């Protein structure tokens, strides 16, 4: 039964919905609002990094032909265009004789090695560049790579770390936490025969989903994040398909009273114990040991591992919220309307308890960015050619005179972490029930 | 209360074993051969036959000493194509490669024959006296033999076998011609009689208690026996036998014993300092809420809380320990100067220590001190809102007295209990500082062990930090209940 929205008659600033109150409270917190603006800025830098710092021009006309090299690269990566023949003979885009050209603001990629400005050229030192247009504004590193370009592309890595790791953490945390909270220790009932058959089939689901495909999954580690997710997803589908078998078999068998007896599964106890065990794990050492066994360093895998070890806070929050929500009238109404358990949980219970999770996610992103940058600082888990804020900072360790390598990337990490902490604070205040009047 | 504690202690057991499975599984998934790591020297496979035989013997002896010749776990749940005797191939690289071949072709009898025919070449190569006429050919066979042991891709195997067959065509290589042709034939059999469908049949195998995990955890010495009676037996993790470091062959116990002192000392100093600063600061900022002092210090605390300590540490090292910027005030790394020895006076020794430890302790302190003072401020503020504070003020008690007698005491509770949570976190937090400042504590030890795949140390460190975290969490919960009578763990 679909319900149409009731037409809004109250003015917007009088909107008394929970969300509106939270937004209003959040807006009162000036530092949090500024943090949010800064965040949009950093996200913008991360998204448009290729247009802000690139060794290729945005627009170029030479030998009578017009090119858009940066856009062209995107098209090639997407597989909808081919590389123009002429590009293969260009080794240094700065050397091409252009009829007209538009460079990105920073005309260097993070990996571009400026051979004339090697060995740590500072911002105030004399640089061997054609004009101020090609100046390295905040210096170069040992290989002559532009620090500003590295900072810009590092923003993309930092945002990706936050998004990927927290998506994984939220996914696991929300699923486990909501099951624990919604079902509690008394609501999930299965028949005896289904439970027994399911438990018996579980090893087989693992076998066909993961054991048989273990080499396919292991090989996909070298193929990037999407390949890995695809392989894992495929494995999960197989495992789910195997588990469907005992479910279907048990359906006719339920009629026998001895087999069809209902058993309550204490979901809350099981999940809470699991969380308790997980919290006791020394997570940073664990992350470090997992990354150390990888054959090839892979940034996406680092993000995934950070996500896999930081879901417990989210799960606890969601569990607490749902323990409260599940006794509310509208959940009862959903039952009365005959909605399925899945629909009640995912469409009605979870969306109404997601707001507090935002706090956990905001602080979680700050932590994930810190962990990743420290790992790159140690040189663990990042491919050597990948430029991140942490890897730039680590270069400063061996060369104290290159102060620009210590100040700027470190400041970028600090600002980003502060932004997320401020937003977490702002959300905490905005969601504080004592402030709701 | 007692039942609560014993219940919590009971939960330690599954947690302990789960962490041990994780640590053990990680070490099994790691690339590299632990036996070779433990042997230290890398044998190249070349050289005289006697030397090679000695190397092989040393390898198997070490494998037996480390328990690597045993099955991995109590049971395995693999496909029917994998034989239950695969673990007997001790060299992990060869075993992994065979497992790949099984995954491709699924016919162990043929693969086993292929493996043995391949191994026969190694022996055969020694029967050929090398001279100038067959030098190139002999090398070619040896190289391709090595390549075949490490590859499972069809094209590469065909190519390597082709190269070998080519090399044995000259008369001086005749003694191993038969072996090489045997390899060619047995590989053809592997491909021809492939049964990849066997990989889809699950099979369960029980290996019993004589396995690697059991050996690591419980050892193989008799239950109640004296270590001196069985010097060659393992006593297992649970009986305090943590093994020997692969890197320098020293017992793990002594290495960790040395390191833990440093970490504990640093953390105790850092935590004490942060408490000493943050408690008065928190109270002052809360009492003078919204004053300029409060606003400024809140901003500073927030900034300190977000400052990555590895950045600060790097900057401090760069600016205060080098002559580059004219501020060479502190030593860069380590915990003592080379000029300090046993003859130095205690005062000089102490001064040198302090000189070395100021920067690391500062880096470890500021983060937790910022966090603590924010907590303290929040705690005081929430107590100030309480009715009993208003009552105390209303009945005319002096403001100072209300703050220190009523508010301060009650807001101290959450801060004190934070200690139990902070402590395990501080241990791993010290990792960053120890690595940057080269302090020989637990953090540096575990980092170097992880990077160097020194698994006896990694196991032990992981297990101990987990135990410490569990104990810390339990202690925090206990302290909550002890200091706050409203919290009770027993069911009413």
Map the helices and strands.
The complex is a heterodimer of chains A (437) and B (492).
Chain A: H1 18-28, H2 30-47, H3 49-52, E1 59-62, E2 65-67, H4 69-78, E3 100-102, H5 147-183, E4 189-191, H6 192-211, H7 214-220, H8 225-253, E5 262-264, H9 267-280, H10 283-292, H11 299-308, H12 312-325, H13 329-336, H14 341-349, H15 355-378, H16 389-398, H17 403-431
Antiparallel strand pairs in A: 1-2, 1-3, 4-5
Chain B: H1 2-29, H2 34-39, H3 49-66, E1 75-79, H4 92-105, H5 108-126, H6 135-149, H7 154-167, H8 177-192, E2 202-206, H9 212-218, H10 252-287, H11 292-306, H12 309-320, H13 346-384, H14 387-394, H15 399-437, H16 442-451, H17 455-483
Antiparallel strand pairs in B: 1-2
Helix pairs in contact in B: 1-17, 5-6, 5-8, 6-7, 7-8, 10-13, 10-15, 11-13, 12-13, 12-15, 13-15, 14-15, 15-16, 15-17, 16-17
How many helices of chain B? The count is: 17
Secondary-structure-derived class of chain B: mainly alpha
Residue fraction in strands of chain B: under 5%
Identify the most extensive interface between protein chains.
A-B, 48 and 54 residues
* Whole-angstrom Rg of chain B: 32 Å
Through-space gap between termini of chain A: 34 Å
Task: Determine the oligomeric state from the structure.
Answer: heterodimer
Given as residue ranges, the uncertain stretches of chain B (5+ residues, pLDDT < 50) are none
In CATH, the architecture of the largest domain in chain B is Orthogonal Bundle
For the record, the CATH architecture of the largest domain in chain A stands as Orthogonal Bundle
Summarize model confidence as the mean pLDDT of chain B. Answer: 83
Q: Report the principal-axis shape of chain B.
A: elongated
C-alpha geometry of chain A: elongated
Number of strands of chain B: 2
The top-level CATH class of the largest domain in chain A is Mainly Alpha
Poorly predicted tracts of residues of chain A = none
């Amino acid at each position: 039964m679909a319900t149409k929205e009731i037409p809004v008659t109250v003015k917007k600033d009088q909107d008394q919905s929970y969300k509106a109150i939270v937004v209003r409270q959040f807006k009162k917190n000036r530092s949090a609002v500024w943090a949010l603006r800064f965040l949009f800025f950093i996200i913008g830098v991360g998204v448009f990094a290729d247009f802000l710092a690139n060794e290729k021009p945005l627009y170029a006309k030479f030998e009578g032909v017009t090119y858009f090299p940066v856009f062209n690269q995107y098209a090639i990566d997407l597989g909808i265009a081919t590389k123009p023949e002429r590009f293969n003979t260009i080794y240094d885009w700065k050397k091409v004789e252009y009829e007209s050209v538009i460079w990105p603001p920073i005309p260097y990629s993070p990996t571009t090695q400026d051979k004339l400005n090697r060995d740590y050229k500072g911002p105030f030192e004399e640089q061997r560049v054609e004009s101020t247009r090609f100046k390295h504004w905040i210096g170069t590193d040992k290989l002559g790579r532009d620090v500003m370009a590295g900072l810009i592309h590092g923003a993309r890595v930092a945002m990706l770390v936050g998004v990927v790791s927290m998506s994984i953490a939220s996914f696991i945390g929300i699923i486990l936490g909501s099951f624990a909270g919604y079902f509690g220790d008394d609501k999930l009932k299965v028949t005896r025969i289904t439970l027994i058959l399911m438990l018996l089939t579980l090893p087989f689901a693992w076998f066909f989903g993961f054991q048989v495909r273990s080499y396919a999954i292991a090989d996909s580690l070298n193929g990037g994040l999407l390949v890995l997710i695809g392989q894992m997803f495929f494995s999960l589908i197989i495992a789910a398909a195997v588990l469907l078998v005992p479910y279907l078999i048990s359906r006719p068998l339920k009629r026998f009273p001895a087999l069809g007896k209902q058993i309550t599964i204490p979901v809350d106890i099981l999940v809470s114990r699991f969380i308790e065990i997980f919290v006791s794990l020394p997570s940073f050492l664990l992350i470090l040991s997992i990354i150390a066994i990888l054959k090839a360093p892979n940034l996406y895998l680092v993000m995934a591992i950070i996500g896999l070890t930081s879901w417990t806070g989210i799960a606890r929050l969601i569990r607490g919220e749902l323990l409260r929500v599940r006794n509310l009238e509208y959940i009862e109404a959903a039952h009365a309307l005959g909605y399925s358990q899945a629909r009640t949980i995912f469409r009605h219970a979870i969306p109404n308890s997601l707001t507090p999770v935002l706090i956990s996610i905001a602080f979680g992103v700050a932590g994930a960015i810190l962990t990743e940058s420290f790992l790159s600082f140690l040189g663990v888990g990042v491919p050597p050619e990948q430029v991140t804020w942490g890897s730039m900072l680590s270069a400063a360790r061996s060369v104290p005179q290159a102060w620009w390598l210590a100040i700027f990337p470190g400041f970028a990490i600090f600002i980003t972490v502060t932004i997320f902490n401020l937003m977490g604070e702002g959300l905490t205040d905005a969601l504080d029930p004592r402030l709701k009047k | 209360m007692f039942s609560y504690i014993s219940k919590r202690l009971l939960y330690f057991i599954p947690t302990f074993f789960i962490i041990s499975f994780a640590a053990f599984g990680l070490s099994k998934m790691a690339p590299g051969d632990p036996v070779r790591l433990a042997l230290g020297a890398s044998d190249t496979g070349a050289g005289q036959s006697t030397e090679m035989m000695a190397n092989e013997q040393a390898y198997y002896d070490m494998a037996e000493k480390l328990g690597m010749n045993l099955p991995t776990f109590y049971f395995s749940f693999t496909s029917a194509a994998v034989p239950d005797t695969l673990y007997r191939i001790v060299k992990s690289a060869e075993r992994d490669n065979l497992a790949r071949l099984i995954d491709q072709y699924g016919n162990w009898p043929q693969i086993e024959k292929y493996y043995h025919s391949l191994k026969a070449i190694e022996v055969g190569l020694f029967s050929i006296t090398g001279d100038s006429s067959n030098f190139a050919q002999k090398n070619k066979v040896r190289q391709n033999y090595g390549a075949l042991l490490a590859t499972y891709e069809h094209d590469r195997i065909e190519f390597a076998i082709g190269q070998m067959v080519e090399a044995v065509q000259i008369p001086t290589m005749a003694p191993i011609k038969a072996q090489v042709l045997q390899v060619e034939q047995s590989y053809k059999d592997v491909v021809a009689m492939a049964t990849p469908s066997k990989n889809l049949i699950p099979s369960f195998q029980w290996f019993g208690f004589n396995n690697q995990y059991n050996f690591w955890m419980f050892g193989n010495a008799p239950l109640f026996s004296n270590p001196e009676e069985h010097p060659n037996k393992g006593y297992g993790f649970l009986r305090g036998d943590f093994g020997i470091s692969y890197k320098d062959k020293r017992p793990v116990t002594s290495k960790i014993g040395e390191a833990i002192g440093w970490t504990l000392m640093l953390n105790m100093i850092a935590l004490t300092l942060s408490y000493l600063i943050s408690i008065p600061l928190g109270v002052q900022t809360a009492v003078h809420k919204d004053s300029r002092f409060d606003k400024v210090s809140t901003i500073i605390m927030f900034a300190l809380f977000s400052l990555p300590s590895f950045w600060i540490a790097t900057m401090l090292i760069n600016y205060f320990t080098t002559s580059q910027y004219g501020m060479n005030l502190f030593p860069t790394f380590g915990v003592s100067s080379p000029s300090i020895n046993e003859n130095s006076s205690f005062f000089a020794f102490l001064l040198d220590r302090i000189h070395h430890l100021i920067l690391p302790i500062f880096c470890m302190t500021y983060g937790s001190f910022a966090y603590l003072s924010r907590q303290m401020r929040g705690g005081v503020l929430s107590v100030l809102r309480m009715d009993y504070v208003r009552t105390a003020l209303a009945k005319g008690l002096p403001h100072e007295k209300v703050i220190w007698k009523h508010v301060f005491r009650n807001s101290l509770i959450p801060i004190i209990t934070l200690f139990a949570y902070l402590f395990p976190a501080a241990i791993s937090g010290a990792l960053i500082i120890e690595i940057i400042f080269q302090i020989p504590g637990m953090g540096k030890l575990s980092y170097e062990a992880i990077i160097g795949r020194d698994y006896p140390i990694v196991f032990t460190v992981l297990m101990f930090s987990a135990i410490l975290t569990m104990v810390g969490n339990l202690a925090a919960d206990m302290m909550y209940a002890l200091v706050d009578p409203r919290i009770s763990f027993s069911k009413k």
